[in-house]
Write a structure and sequence with these properties.
The protein has 325 residues and is an alpha/beta fold. It contains twelve helices and ten strands. Helix 5 packs across helix 12.
Length: 325
């Protein structure tokens, strides 16, 4: 699985010269676009947070005149994806948020609509995953969680995003590393992070897996407890071991990016790439990433398209290995 070091290495190796350009400040052009941001997930999750953060930063930097965020949740983005294609085809002022979760969901759900039907614009962020439990959970460590999984995986329901996404993949990898058949695990998929969080807080599931940012506030107030992170090393300011420290030899780094509709002009594609490059070079974006525990890993244009092809092939192999495809 692509971990943080590999993601950052690819970012440095591909298009490094363009990313090293000095940011010149806000673009205050009179024709700054009105942007349509399409989120193929319910409000509250990582894609929705990404869209809202983009909206704030782009407005603050004067890069857009305004925006509208539309949410269409379901099945890891495979419900919203065809709607984005049909509704915005040929429109150069629209962007859809997606990422590794959608790649996995398309494969797992055998979706007729693929990511090669939209226009890759930019990879934006990467985020490690967190394994959390409700505050009252008997699981105090990853070892406790794994022991229960080994005893009876059907009695350890875990909430996360849509089937086949990064949360599901991580749960399957944990099970496999623990010697548990990944096809026997009890994974409870939700269309949005808000719904998964409600299930956790309501003690309807034994644990939850998602990006740390989606759990951060509830962890801070003591409603949830982190058992481990899927990062390659301990993270500053987060009191939790890595899965590797806990005896589960797994690393996973989720990525998110944006796509334009099909059939846009070369000029519109170049404008969207430039918009994302200006955004990711801004101090406001760096601050958002810091606050949300995201790692900024921008990659645009042809380099992003090549990365996407490689990641689709990689995830397809993993899902087959886990019996999820």
């Amino acid at each position: 699985m692509l971990n943080r070091r590999e993601l950052l290495k690819s970012t440095a190796a591909i298009g490094a010269a363009g990313l090293a350009a000095v940011y010149a400040g806000p673009v205050l052009a009179q024709d700054a676009p009105q942007l349509d941001l399409f989120v193929p997930a319910a409000p509250g999750g990582g894609w929705d947070q990404t869209a809202r953060a983009m909206d704030q930063v782009l407005r603050k930097e004067g890069l857009i005149s305004g925006s509208q965020v539309t949410n269409v949740g379901g099945a890891g983005g495979t419900v919203g994806l065809p709607q984005f294609i049909s509704r915005y085809k040929g429109k150069g002022n629209a962007l859809m948020v997606g990422g590794m979760v959608m790649v996995g969901a398309i494969i797992a759900n055998k979706s007729a609509t693929k990511l090669d039907q939209v226009t890759p614009i930019a990879r934006l962020t990467g985020e490690f995953e967190a394994l959390v439990v409700p505050a009252a959970s008997p699981f105090q460590t990853v070892q406790d969680f794994v022991a229960a999984l080994k005893e009876d995986p059907t009695k350890v329901p875990v909430a996360g995003g849509s089937a086949g996404g990064s949360d599901h993949i991580l749960f399957g990898l944990i099970a496999k590393a623990a010697g548990v058949d990944p096809t026997k695990i009890s994974y409870v998929p939700f269309a949005g992070g808000g719904e998964a969080l409600a299930a956790l807080l309501g003690n309807q599931v034994a644990a939850g897996i998602s990006g740390y940012g989606e759990f951060a506030e509830q962890v801070k107030v003591g409603a949830l407890r982190i058992l481990a992170l899927s990062a390659d090393e301990r993270q500053e300011g987060i009191d939790a071991p890595t899965l590797k420290e806990s005896g589960v030899d797994i690393e996973l780094f989720n990525w998110r990016g944006v796509f334009a509709p099909p059939d846009i002009s070369a000029e519109d594609k170049a404008a969207m790439v430039k918009l994302m490059e200006d955004m990711t070079k801004s101090a406001a974006w760096a601050e958002e990433c810091k606050n949300r525990q995201w790692t900024s890993i921008p990659l645009t244009g042809d380099a992003y398209e090549e990365f996407l092809k490689e990641d689709i092939a990689r995830i397809e192999e993993i899902l087959k290995d886990l019996g999820l495809a």
